[in-house]
Amino acid sequence: MLKKVLKSYDYSLIIVVILLSLFGLVMVYSASMVTAMQRYGFESDHFFIRQKIFLLVGLVVFLFFAIVPYKLYLNNKVLIPIVLISLILLIGVLKFGTIAGNARSWFDFGPIRLQPSEFVKVAVIVYLAAVYAKKQQYINQFNTGVLPPLVFIILVSFLIALQPDYGTIAIILLISGTIIISSGMNFKSILKLGALGGVMSIPLVLFLSDKIFSATRLDRFKVLVDPFAEGVADDSGYHLVNSFYAIGGGGVEGLGLGQGIQKLGYLPEPHTDFIMAVISEELGVFGVGFVLISLSYIVLKGLFIGLKGKDPFGSLLAIGIASMIGIQTFINLAGISGIFPLMGIPLPFVSYGGSSLLQLSIAMGILVNVSMFVNYEAKYKSKVNMEGPTVPPNKKSEFKA
How far is CA 255 from CA 35, 193, 215, 261, 382, in A? Predict the structure, then answer.
């Protein structure tokens, strides 16, 4: 039994995640060594060491969630605490959290700083997947199948908006939309859900209008028109312009690992939001290609697992996790390339950040576990069905017509 289970794990997915994380660790050191000394007064390897520690902790977390059967989260004794803890953390960070980057989004525990909203992404995926898996028979009934999940999504979005962290809200809403579309809900119910969500969001937008439509955030949209315009390049467009310089400066082959220029005080967060710009400048097309191919493989593999699985809960979990990684990747790359406004979203597995790494470790552990069950059923359950039951000699008469 154990041997069959071990054979059923998707080791290609595990290897890609490990290689991408190790690549990210190297790039965090390259991107952060000057910033660590000049801006923060740390040793050059400060962020590298912290990222390495989070990677090791993340490995333990990943192994734990890769072993725990994913169907356990369907149990209300597990699911309800996940939901309640998520809400408590979001409320608690508003009262006791630390402000950084104009947002009260972190719990500061001395040397460790955790961002609850990162873990809430996974909680939302688990909750929505469980709810829609349980409600398959009446998924299109408004009061029972449509309304309850919407209330949870709106509540989570409201609490995160108070921090404020609109990038995370965008990710959660897009993930939720992906799971809802994949849940089996008919088109009429989806339209009804979208319309109701829009109406329920109006008070939220009005209540936070001064923060949502602040001059700083509106400038992020104006910058997209022409970041090189006079008076813009040295002000609100400064970050985007230097991102362009980094992306274009590497050419095909790149300047060489550690030889980038824009990380020397020009890019604001070279080891987090703008790490892909540093990769482009130092490693060129090959470095960027490695990251994009690896992330694409993870996303497509997750979607394939979701489509292959016969269990609605496992399928929705896989699709939700794959969509989270894909959406977060797109928003990060769109921000540094001037397609979307910058939102402060890290690049999965590559950017520096303990909360992001731990959250991804949980998500990938769950995805690998779902994949194991899907592969196990495909390999061994189907084999049993084709061969028929094994019948002891003295029991054959029980199976005669």
Answer: 19, 50, 37, 9, 53
